[in-house]
Amino acid sequence: MDESEDVPKDFIKLKSEKLSVDEVSELVISPCCGAVSLFIGTTRNNFEGKKVIHLEYEAYTSMAETEIRKICRDVRQKWPSVKHIAVHHRLGVVPVTEASVIIAVSSPHRVESLEAVMYCINTLKASVPIWKKAEFAMW
């Protein structure tokens, strides 16, 4: 890839299909970056002492995408060296052990990408209109 064509990009996707760590991480790879940092949020089998069967996510899709774009803009202001950002979030039912959200960030050095990934997930959980409902076992 010609480095001049490697302009910073944001990849935002909300979808009901299973998320792919490989797909998301490949989106942010760049020849000028030595770091790709990932956050993978998965469904765990318990919450506050109760057994979780699965999680279910709903979103106000257009507003959620707009808010995620704002997060990407904020990341670029806070960490100008960040190259690419990918945020994929699953909607619908997400079984235990499967990913509900994958965030990937590339940058020339690790500190920026690691900090940016943490900022992305924390801000997403606080401000993006995506709602989670847990289905618990009766026993």
Gyration radius over CA? 16 Å
Number of helices: 3
The SSE order reads EHEEEHEEEHE
Strand order within the widest sheet? 1-5-7-2
Mean pLDDT: 95
Helix content: 25-40%
Give the CA-CA distance, first to last residue: 55 Å
Strand content: 35-45%
Q: What best-fitting shape do the alpha-carbon axes yield?
A: elongated
Which parts are unreliable, with pLDDT below 50 for 5 consecutive residues or more? Answer: none
Name the quaternary structure. single chain
Strand segment count: 8
Query: What characterizes the major β-sheet?
Result: 4 strands, mixed
User: Which structural class do you get from the secondary structure elements?
Assistant: alpha+beta
Q: Could you describe the 3D structure shown?
A:
The strands form two sheets. A four-stranded mixed β-sheet has the order 1-5-7-2, with helices on both faces. Strands 3, 4, 6 and 8 form a four-stranded antiparallel β-sheet that branches. Strand 3 and strand 4 form a beta hairpin. The chain has three helices and eight strands. The chain is α+β, with helices and mostly antiparallel strands and 139 residues long. 32% of the residues lie in helices and 37% in strands.
